[in-house]
Amino acid sequence: MSAGAQARAGGSRRCVRIGVTGPIGCGKSQVVRWLAELGATVIDADAVARGVTAPGHPAHDAVVRHFGRAVTLPDGTLDRAALARLVFADGERLAELEAIVHPAVRPVIIDVLEAAEREGAPAVAVEAIKLVEGGLATLCDEVWLVDCDTATQRARLTARGAPPDDAERRIAAQGALAQRLRPAATRVIDTSGAMTETRALVAEALVEALAAAR
Description:
Layout: H1 3-9, E1 16-21, H2 28-37, E2 41-44, H3 45-52, H4 58-67, H5 80-88, H6 91-118, E3 123-127, E4 142-147, H7 150-159, H8 164-174, H9 177-181, E5 187-190, H10 195-212
Parallel strand pairs: 1-3, 1-4, 2-3, 4-5
């Protein structure tokens, strides 16, 4: 029985909002996929960000005005690889990008959260690497920090096809992100171990979160 089914069997409970965050390569997306299998509705903040920065949206125009045509492709869409190279190399530029994108993302996520709750979802998982910094954590009942050891993180990034130097750059750019997020985290999900063990940890954490929402 899924965690969502257990919740329904145990009586009526409000929808639990779970923010899922953590450093790149530590398994946020896998944790969210497991939550979806267990009955949660999933919101990918990165996908929302891509939507609000597509041509025809105000945030797209704002990004192009701020960073120039060098971050666009011939068809007018954002060249996300070029933009990533620019902002990951400069913390100030990253902050400038986030100041444009985050305010556009938040209302969309609120709409999806509210729609999922109206439809009776037992839980909603919001996946966002900048969950706390972008203000999305304030929309959530729990914040789950997904973390792993650096060797595992590096191996996962290179397994995805990232060149070793690019993997190191991305890891370094996020620095001590996990340590900064720990004070805001309700739970820490360590994904360094076997997938079967980690999935069991996620299932247990969801059951506990649903029980707390009685």
